[in-house]
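#onboarding

Welcome to the new folks! Below is a worked example of what a typical request in this channel looks like: someone posts a single protein sequence, and someone else replies with the predicted structure as tokens. Don't worry about understanding the tokens yet, we'll cover that in week two.

Example request:
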Amino acid sequence: MGLQPIDPIDPAEICRAFDIDLMRLAELGDPPGSHCGIDESCFSAVTVPCAGRTAIVHNCSHHLWRQRSNICHELAHCFLGHECTPPLTSDGERIHDSGIEAEANFLGGALLITNEAAKHIVLDGLLAQAQILYGVSRPMLDFRLRMSGALAIQKRMQGVR
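Example response:
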């Protein structure tokens, strides 16, 4: 895709590059919130196999940065080869595999801010503009700076000076 390791990604472009259909929940024809009752924020995104293709359906009522994170989380499921499973049991209980979700959380964040990008942010003093540059929330930015080791590198370098 011609990206450098520190470049921000466009999740929609990633979907196109990997032939994954990206659909907004609103495109499904139901009014926002009808899938969750009154609180439309309860649904983030889901990966759906559809006639030999893969689709990611995401909640377009969320903040743009949250949408980007949701889509990258679902892309991570695809890239990690996680099987698409029904989200609910026959009794209506939510199915949740914490190990699989942790893997997708980690890779989804790394898609948004690579280790190289995290180091670039702290070493080049871009912390103040990083959320806008990479289109991420503050919690996601903090998570990636911590998990990438960028903060530890910065602290070591400050100790050297």
